[in-house]
Amino acid sequence: MQASxxxxxxxxxxxxxxxxxxxxxxxxxxxSEADWRAELMCSQASGRDLSLYVHIPxxxxxxxxxxxxxxxTQDYTKATSYLDVLFDEIERSAExxxxxxxxxxxxxGGGTPTYLKPADILRLSQHLHxxxxxxxxxxxxxxxxxxxxxxxxxxxxxxxxxxxxxxxVQDLDERVQRAVNRLQPLALIQQVYGWMRSEGFNSINMDLxxxxxxxxxxxxxxxxxxxxxxxPDRLAVxxxxxxxxxxKHQKLIQEPDLPDFATxxxxxxxxxxxxxxxxxxxxxxxxxxxxxxxxxxxxxxKTLWRNFQGYTTHRDCDILAFGASAISQTDDVYAQxxxxxxxxxxxxxxxxxxxxxxxxxxxxxxxxxDAITRIMCDLELDKAAFSQVWGLDFDTYFVxxxxxxxxxxxxxxxxxxPQRVRVTEAGRIFLRNIAMAFDAxxxxxxxxxxxxxxxx
Length: 456
Ligand code: SF4
Fold this sequence. Notes:
The structure is a single chain. The chain is of the alpha/beta class and 456 residues long. The protein folds into 2 domains: 23-360, TIM Barrel (Alpha-Beta Barrel), CATH 3.20.20; 363-443, Arc Repressor Mutant, subunit A, CATH 1.10.10.920. Helix content is 39%, strand content 21%. It contains 16 helices and 19 strands. It has helices at 2-11, 33-46, 77-97, 118-131, 151-159, 174-179, 186-198, 217-230, 261-277, 294-300, 341-349, 363-378, 383-390, 394-397, 399-410, 431-436, and strands at residues 50-56, 58-59, 71-72, 102-110, 133-144, 164-170, 204-210, 234-239, 280-284, 287-290, 305-307, 310-312, 318-322, 327-329, 333-337, 355-360, 380-382, 414-416, 420-423. α5 links the parallel β5 and β6. α3 (77-97) runs parallel beside α4, α3 (77-97) crosses α11 and α8 (217-230) runs parallel beside α9 (261-277). The model has no long low-confidence stretch (mean pLDDT 93). The site of iron/sulfur cluster has 11 residues, from loops.
């Protein structure tokens, strides 16, 4: 245990979560709306399938740990005028993306998508279906905040064709909930969960969070008792990212109340043990699924992928993302919308696509993105297979990365053989550190390294 705490102290340092590579701080305003339009026109010819993301930035109140792009407001007129603009953006993008491309996946995130009234959930869904060809078996998911959710919301989601929901729980302990300004008793979670099952949702994810103020092993163990009794299909247990220099409202969290290294380590051990005993398989960073889940199958078949929405089986889709701060992606390009609502409204109102920044990526970026993705998804990297795909010699191309990994190897977090790089059991909670060895941007020495959250 003592050795493990030493490792946690050694490797807990700022680092990316790798929902993209290069990561968003390296997107540039030199990438313009015209660049994205040109990319969309080119992508028509590819005929690649699509994954759509819709960002609804509104929330009823502010959770102090929040790291999302959101606006807390009780004024629903903000949402209706946002929807008007969003509809225009969706229509404009659909025209440029071209006909005949099949949508395999839709995800609504936020903020709180269920901030929208049931009638507006249906209206937005119909608008998407009017402008895109959505596959009958498309995976359609929505993030759900149990507070202020009604049975009518759940019925509207079902009617709109959603087949996956992700419920934000975080922690059931009242003291923890008070410290982060998110009160939601167990009875409420149970009620919402019951509505979802009765409406026929058979893929329910629950989000939990560790590293919150006042959390202890005993209190989180009690939370796990209640959540596992509900038997969700997937679980995501995120580590709280304390970045008050980026998210000013996190200053409302008292730092002395945050769990220390020893508690955080014990919490990680508790999660791995309890979820494994309950039959969940570790997918990768923070994510667990039942053994018969398609994410587990994809991991076994090495076809799992990772994008801005987390782990996915839809590797070959272009992502079209709508709404303030949303990030679109083709194989060659990332393009992010304006984050500030006022800017987003103005640009769409002017007849533009609201692109604030982006990046056209290089061949080296693609190679490193694949290496990082394989580590994040497969927990190992087959050197020969990788070399064949990219037409290179792995050990030569990644000589610097392998040198950096030697320290992690000496600490038992990664195993390096002539055939492969493999994450060990002990290395699982250090996935971000292992991936960082392949990140060329972190090796830049121009002093412009972004301030990320801590890796563990
Ligand atoms: S509901 Fe979600 S997005 Fe909204 S403030 Fe809370 S954590 Fe942030």
